[in-house]
């Protein structure tokens, strides 16, 4: 089979990509070979005649909503077999269920044989029967794949409309019974929060009720594999409930707006659980002041073992949560405690940390996730013989049970990809047509999520109510509390003792997790002068930054933990929370050194707002979908992604913006203001500044071309600042 590009076909309200598919349908002996009695499959190529059939595949590239809905009925005829699944998974980005259902039933579902009441001929009857079959096929797929679209309490208008259509056109059909049962199911179900097993914050408690401080003895009583299994059980239950379209960049990036506080609840629930695990790790290590250094080290070792058990269970969500907690500032700075952790366990910890290395856009974790997405068991190839021996032993126990395992991913990877796609690709193309090529690209990510959700059905885990009750009953420390306790724990330690050499790999920066609320840096003491790490860098081992997300008790799903800065690049500054600026001995520099400007290529919480990319021509780079998507910190193909934060106000919350080589300051400024939910008309009152270093900035003239004017050798981090005359 060979494929050939057939160009484009343009119709009224739609543009199609055409591909010619050439398929060999027959191979027969030629005339001479037949005279000799030969068969086609037994002869060399020169004695055979091949017959080919060429078919045309039409895939809609862009169109109006009416054309996209109409294409649901004709996609199979055009050999675009995946179109229905792609549309159903992504249409919420540009239309509502009611709008799609009305078009499908009212415009295309009117099955009256004749508008004049005359008897229709045989051809029209056949076409109407075919149309009825096509509509039934689409509705069946909709109910199979996206039944949650019809959950609209208390009226359920879409379900009632669908039921009325089926009664009139397909009475007593299986479809009618199915819709009636679904309506009863929705009506009987109470409105449930999706947070199932997630920890509650102290602000949600009834008066007089208090959460318990973590009891080390009680925590130690749980076996490592039991903890990992229970964390996996909770993660599986929440991940299976994730509605894929909630992850779309245009949906998820709008969550911070006031009117969208209840948007994407299934994604928020997984983030809440992720943060609950992270906080639980920190509270068990720091929550008890009376612990000795060796006891605290044992708890760290236990969590590393639990992380390893999560790896065996292919639970990458809790695995990353535990690793992130151990890399947080308050835990990382426990130098003497880490020295008491055994060498073998430190090596195990390093290997687990390497899974989430940010090298090459987290290539290691992506490849591992896809490799194990459909495998029965984890593939544990350890570089350390001792760890490999232990891993294989535990894995063999899992195999002996004869039950396959699923895979729980770290959802942030997919949120990052979808927000990047939403930022880089236009919602509409020339003529105001919906860019469906963008939705095809998004579906590639959505399909991976669905595949992993299906794999989670393989898990056979039983809830342990004792552990779940303990887990939900933990009082989580705020960032300030954990840092204070961390300082107290190290106060009596000998600051001249070197931390293990292996710490260098431990402090590799992992991007900020699910940044969604304002970020702050608690006041930090001046770094103690101690021996340099490894005796070579010359920097204090206690100079790690304390920049992390505040655990906002009113919206815990947006909280996060930022890993410590590496000793090679310490942030020696404090944060003035009243003024919103970071100060140092050299003076005050607004919004410098924000940890969140140095995260991954694209941060889940910093995504674009839907529709923020105008429907203007962005140049040839985006005219038909870029082969290589624009990314942060690299100019390619005449475009790139920059991060823009507001000076002083929400200084560390940035928004990612796509710019091209045609964009000038007024346009970029307006789009940045829109992203930050500010009035774009006030663009003339602001100046755009690129952060070059702690003491250097690049201020752009009013009509400068941002793409060519920016410094491409430093981070693409920008600040919107009110002009001095406006402030005055």
TrEMBL record:
<feature type="domain" description="Ras-associating">
    <location>
        <begin position="638"/>
        <end position="725"/>
    </location>
</feature>
<dbReference type="InterPro" id="IPR000159">
    <property type="entry name" value="RA_dom"/>
</dbReference>
<dbReference type="InterPro" id="IPR001895">
    <property type="entry name" value="RASGEF_cat_dom"/>
</dbReference>
<dbReference type="InterPro" id="IPR000651">
    <property type="entry name" value="Ras-like_Gua-exchang_fac_N"/>
</dbReference>
<dbReference type="GO" id="GO:0005886">
    <property type="term" value="C:plasma membrane"/>
</dbReference>
<feature type="compositionally biased region" description="Low complexity">
    <location>
        <begin position="580"/>
        <end position="614"/>
    </location>
</feature>
<protein>
    <submittedName>
        <fullName>RGL1 protein</fullName>
    </submittedName>
</protein>
<dbReference type="Pfam" id="PF00617">
    <property type="entry name" value="RasGEF"/>
</dbReference>
<dbReference type="InterPro" id="IPR023578">
    <property type="entry name" value="Ras_GEF_dom_sf"/>
</dbReference>
<feature type="compositionally biased region" description="Basic and acidic residues">
    <location>
        <begin position="569"/>
        <end position="579"/>
    </location>
</feature>
<feature type="compositionally biased region" description="Polar residues">
    <location>
        <begin position="538"/>
        <end position="551"/>
    </location>
</feature>
<dbReference type="GO" id="GO:0005085">
    <property type="term" value="F:guanyl-nucleotide exchange factor activity"/>
</dbReference>
<feature type="domain" description="Ras-GEF">
    <location>
        <begin position="223"/>
        <end position="492"/>
    </location>
</feature>
<dbReference type="InterPro" id="IPR019804">
    <property type="entry name" value="Ras_G-nucl-exch_fac_CS"/>
</dbReference>
<dbReference type="Pfam" id="PF00618">
    <property type="entry name" value="RasGEF_N"/>
</dbReference>
<feature type="domain" description="N-terminal Ras-GEF">
    <location>
        <begin position="56"/>
        <end position="187"/>
    </location>
</feature>
<dbReference type="InterPro" id="IPR008937">
    <property type="entry name" value="Ras-like_GEF"/>
</dbReference>
<dbReference type="InterPro" id="IPR029071">
    <property type="entry name" value="Ubiquitin-like_domsf"/>
</dbReference>
<keyword id="KW-0344">Guanine-nucleotide releasing factor</keyword>
<dbReference type="InterPro" id="IPR036964">
    <property type="entry name" value="RASGEF_cat_dom_sf"/>
</dbReference>
<dbReference type="Pfam" id="PF00788">
    <property type="entry name" value="RA"/>
</dbReference>
<feature type="region of interest" description="Disordered">
    <location>
        <begin position="521"/>
        <end position="630"/>
    </location>
</feature>
<dbReference type="GO" id="GO:0007265">
    <property type="term" value="P:Ras protein signal transduction"/>
</dbReference>
